[in-house]
Amino acid sequence: MIESALTNSKDIDSIALTERFESQENIRLTTIEDIRLKESYKIDNNTINRYRLELDNETKIGLNVCYPNNQITDIPVIMAPALLTGLHGRNLVIQKELAKIGLPSILVGMPGSERDSFKKEIKGLINDPKKLITNLKKLNLINYCVYSSTIHKNADLFKLDNQTMIGYGESRGAMVLLGNIACQNKFKNNIPYSVAVSPCYPEPLQLSDILQSGNLVLKEMKNIQKLLGSLSLNCLNTLNLSPKSILFEAANMPTLTNGDMGQFIPDIPKDQNISLIQFDDDTFGQYKTWIKTFPKNKYPNITIEVLKGSHASLAQKSTLNIIIDKFTAIAKEISG
Length: 336
Hints:
Blueprint: H1 2-6, E1 32-43, E2 46-55, E3 60-67, E4 77-80, H2 90-100, E5 105-108, H3 118-127, H4 129-137, H5 141-153, E6 164-170, H6 172-182, H7 184-187, E7 190-197, H8 207-211, H9 213-228, H10 233-236, H11 243-257, E8 274-279, H12 287-293, E9 302-307, H13 317-335
Parallel strand pairs: 4-5, 4-6, 6-7, 7-8, 8-9
Antiparallel strand pairs: 1-2, 2-3, 3-5
């Protein structure tokens, strides 16, 4: 059934992209201009450090660094959050689960994801509209990859390996991860293992997808309703719904739906090791296109696992169990 469905899918090589990375030659890592430790605390003897960074282009992002109590490696798992999520809730839960198996992790927030007081956020949005517009124009998938790769190249600041990383991401975070993989030679990163959950839109959003959006929203709402019973209060804190975050996340949508993801695909090495998880009822994930994009005869080390569910299914406990099982295997591989 999957094979026949793929015959109607557009050839990934035909994705219309006028500027691939604006050419990789024009991309450079940014520089960390300022870094401040916001807080440090322990959970189950694992240490969580929260930082706020300012890059040389005045972009401000937050990040969590999680150090396991029984750390087995200095190689960090580099993560980026899904749309509408930040540095709290489920993303922090995943960091704590990784710590249980001895893996340190760095969760790199997206611009605008750092929470401030409601009053401070509103004041910042209206006081300098020109600066706000400038910041919003910087929101694109390529820059996100640059930011997360910049953090990794400075991981020695956190006493972690700045040459080799393990990749992880869900939805938008998975798209950032695949971009990091495509850029690893450019940025001199080594990414031997990765787990990507439901990366979206390797092809641009089509009119047919928009026409299906009403049914899609209903499906996702029903799935979220099912999930609510199994989510902890901590996981409910995942959604980043401050005024600033909502504005920045809304500005994210074009780069996530216009096929920007597809421009990374030609630069993903044929021998790359990636475990890709998708869902069979996920319009955003376009799993049929991913199966066609990474055929086993060309990408022998990329495995694609299609689970039952829709996009919101990435948040269910059974999915997390599968993810942690994969990282447990990676941890055993690393520790020998």
